[in-house]
Protein 1
Amino acid sequence: MFLVKNRQNYLFQFPPLLKMPGLVHAVASRIGGNSRPPFDGMNMSHGVGDDPEAVTANRKRLRQITGNGICVYTRQNHGTSIRAITRDAVARGEAVQTEPVPADALITDVPGVRLLIQTADCQAVMLFDPQKRVVANIHCGWRGSVADIIGHTVLRMISGFGCDPGRMIAAIGPSLGPCCAEFVNFQDEIPRPLWPFRVGAHHFDFWRISRHQLITAGLSDGNVHGSGICTRCNPHLFFSYRAAPKTGRFAALIGLDENIASRH
């Protein structure tokens, strides 16, 4: 369940999330933008060797075409660090930093804030509790799956924001599919409890792993939505590290619309 909202800007969205009042979300493809090869064109990362001015212009464009707001990035490190963006932090101007803090998951209930995750084969897993009006965005690669960063994030939403996972909606962005997620040394990299998700000799279905971890954390199976798009199979649409190690990063964002959320 995945579609293109705007073919000029190639923003992809999930229909179930589009039905949620006051929720803003999008996955930006690599098409367009200001970056030159091998980062062409909407590269969102300052950490891959691209022209900083081009990245800044790409980020500004994404902000404009998704309704502006405060865009929050982190320095992703394939760990389990979770950062909560609070109203006090936004008021003090700490939500946006010149040097983003290390974190692989972001949570907020502040209207006007956009949580951004940058990927090039890893998953961006977006979460929303429509009653508590809390959103999260998770950077989940294979190391994140092994560490169950999804489960840790859901627990943080419960303990820190009073969320109920039974109400949550999840969306798994474009990422490495079971067709291309090959791990020839999986005995050393992937723990045995995840081996049932092996496809063939050396491939793993990390889409199914994330769904399993979300359901284990309390989400309903019907509230978990995947794009079904493999980044390595579609390098013309999305950056893929497996397809080309020297490449850019595309972004997935989620947040609460300031105008609608303020009326609740």
Protein 2
Amino acid sequence: MRSISFNLLNENNGARLGKIITPRGVIDTPAFMPVGTAATVKAMYVDQVKDCGSQILLGNTYHLMIRPGTQRIIEAGGLHQFMNCNLPILTDSGGFQVMSLSKLTKITEDGVIFNSHLDGKKFFLTPEESIDVQLKLNSDIVLVFDDCPKYSFDKNKIIESMNLSLRWAKRSKDKFANQNSKWLFGIVQGGVFSDLRRECLNKLIDIGFDGYAIGGLAVGEKQREMFDVLDCVKDLMPKDKPHYLMGVGTPEDILGAVKRGIDMFDCVLPTRSGRTGLAFTWKGRVNIRNSKYSKDQTPLDDSIDCPASRLYSKNYLNHLVNSNEILGSMLLTWHNIAFYQDLMKKIRKSIEENRFDEFYKKSLAMLVNEN
């Protein structure tokens, strides 16, 4: 019997409340996964990430296999031991990074030949190798290796890419075989074409996966296009499996995606924004570099149970960020992760109480403000 499972607890006009139960802990869904690309959530301690309410982190196969290298992590006992993290970890297969970061990428039927974006070293990554690396990292949720094309209206190009991803998905599943304490997610591709998205999803369901991720979004399309993709597949996604929207997004994106049945999210936005001086609050976005905050003694958001949100004035944060002090990045990142987890907690509560639509409308009106 497998030791990882998903329970759907409630549905409220499309929004889903659930629990993923893993050997390393329970994940309440909808869930947001802070991005720990290279075995670290930038500018944060793991304990801080956990204290904010995070129940799962994301790591990336591409970055980890290049630096520090798979063998070094194996020798530490796996990714959890390497980064001193006892939370569940999901690893992205590396397909997106191979396409977006690597130099001189060559796609073949067997896999992808690419040069490291760090030092130009040549790698050959196949679906089997991607799965093998993820299993050696010992992540809890593994993703199939896929081809992630750039935003395009060239349907023939997207069809070719989608079919390659489907063949790679089958090879990934064969390599993954039977893992009692891990899951393997398939990735739905197909660009902005509804018929291709549905075709891809149906073929992935035929192969059979533990969860279904929607990839190839947040690559330049408009929010409306992203929601159209979710709308076209939401009623076809298996109800008893987790639904994961990869690389998304803003608080407004998350609210709209939850409305369309998405259970899991990841995005670098809260951490990257924190390092550049942008904070997300329940009164809207705050560009802390703005000179008007140099006389503002109020905290970022005292409604959030986080020291960075409640105990430091905008005046002080403005000084730190404009002085390029490391503490500024640390505090704003800490706050942003806490805000995102507060958002997810409130989303879950509203679904539990069958009032998600009310919460959605009220929150959207507040979050779109610019300060």
